[in-house]
């Protein structure tokens, strides 16, 4: 089995080329690939498959040739991954499977078709505009924090830390508790603190995230979009540009009247071959 390893601001993925959908990708195989001791190690798996060859992408084949089949590290499939989409596009370009036109490169996902643009090392992906739709809480140990529920094609709960709480000191070794009535399919939970002014932006936020199905990660693309939307709302703005710093680096989120652009680096770091028989499935 051929593979490539890539990341976007530290959010890392095993990329599996499978253009004709021939690979028997199971939850156990995904979890084994993502195992950081016995496998390659990653926050998730990106299978590169033609939309027409995947049952969940076939309906979108007329809009996008390639389908991003994204799986979390625990073997569960997910609707969307912003950093994953940017790394997916980097792979398509670097392997000559696709080119980016002035209109952008469309990619099919379980959350619909997204569009990507490339400017040197920076890849920007246009996704749906985040929808703020409810309030809820997250609990870490004995600490309960109020948050805003946000839909970015997948579910998020954005919790701003009150004054006096240190973002780096949060213990995210265990999953935050949340309300299963509000989030019946689980949720990605973002914890935020304000950052200093950044030129060319309308806001700056520091963020850590516990991702559904992957635990704490160094970055979450859709999570940064959710955080940016909440920051703009709190600043009484409908649109704008927000710099979001995650443990893996910085991304820039631009919320427009009808969409959201996530921009940042996407890097491929290794290619190779593995024998699935040697994985601990």
From TrEMBL:
Catalytic activity: (2S,6S)-2,6-diaminopimelate = meso-2,6-diaminopimelate
Signal peptide boundaries: none
EC number: 5.1.1.7
Binding residues for substrate: 11, 72, 82-83, 154, 188, 211-212, 221-222
Active site: 81, 220
Pathway given in the UniProt record: Amino-acid biosynthesis; L-lysine biosynthesis via DAP pathway; DL-2,6-diaminopimelate from LL-2,6-diaminopimelate: step 1/1
Site features described as Could be important to modulate the pK values of the two catalytic cysteine residues, chain residue numbers: 156, 211
EC top class, as a word: isomerase
SUPFAM superfamilies documented for this protein: Diaminopimelate epimerase-like
Domain of life: Bacteria
InterPro entries: DAP_epimerase_AS, DAP_epimerase_DapF
GO molecular function, one term: diaminopimelate epimerase activity
One Pfam family from the record: DAP_epimerase
Keywords, in A-Z order: Amino-acid biosynthesis, Cytoplasm, Isomerase, Lysine biosynthesis
Amino-acid biosynthesis keyword on record: yes
Entry's localization field: Cytoplasm
Primary localisation category: cytoplasm
HAMAP family given in the database record: DAP_epimerase
Its biological purpose: Catalyzes the stereoinversion of LL-2,6-diaminopimelate (L,L-DAP) to meso-diaminopimelate (meso-DAP), a precursor of L-lysine and an essential component of the bacterial peptidoglycan.
Subunit structure: Homodimer.
Similarity-based family: Belongs to the diaminopimelate epimerase family.
Entry protein name: Diaminopimelate epimerase
């Amino acid at each position: 089995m051929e593979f490539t390893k890539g990341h976007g601001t530290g959010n890392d993925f095993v990329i599996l080329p499978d253009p004709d959908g021939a690979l028997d990708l199971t939850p156990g195989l995904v979890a084994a690939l993502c195992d950081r001791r016995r496998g390659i190690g990653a926050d998730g798996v990106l299978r590169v498959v033609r939309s027409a060859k995947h049952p969940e992408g076939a309906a979108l084949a007329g809009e996008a040739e390639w389908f991003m089949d994204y799986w979390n590290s625990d073997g569960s499939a997910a609707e969307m991954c912003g950093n994953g989409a940017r790394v997916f596009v980097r792979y398509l370009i670097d392997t000559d499977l696709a080119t980016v036109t002035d209109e952008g490169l469309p990619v099919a996902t379980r959350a619909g078709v997204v569009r990507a643009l490339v400017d040197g090392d920076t890849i920007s992906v246009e996704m749906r505009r985040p929808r703020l739709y409810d309030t809820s809480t997250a609990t870490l140990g004995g600490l309960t924090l109020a948050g805003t529920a946000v839909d970015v094609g997948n579910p998020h709960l954005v919790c701003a830390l009150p004054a006096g709480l240190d973002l780096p000191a949060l213990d995210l070794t265990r999953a935050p508790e949340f309300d299963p009535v509000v989030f019946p399919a689980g949720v990605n939970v973002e914890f935020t603190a304000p950052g200093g002014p950044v030129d060319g932006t309308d806001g700056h936020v520091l963020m850590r995230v516990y991702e559904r199905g992957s635990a704490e990660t160094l970055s979450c693309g859709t999570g940064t979009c959710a955080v940016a939307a909440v920051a703009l709302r709190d600043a009484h703005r409908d649109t704008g540009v927000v710099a979001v710093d995650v443990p893996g680096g910085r991304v820039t989120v631009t919320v427009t009247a009808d969409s959201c652009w996530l921009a940042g680096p996407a890097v491929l770091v290794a290619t190779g071959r593995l024998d699935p028989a040697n994985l601990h499935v």
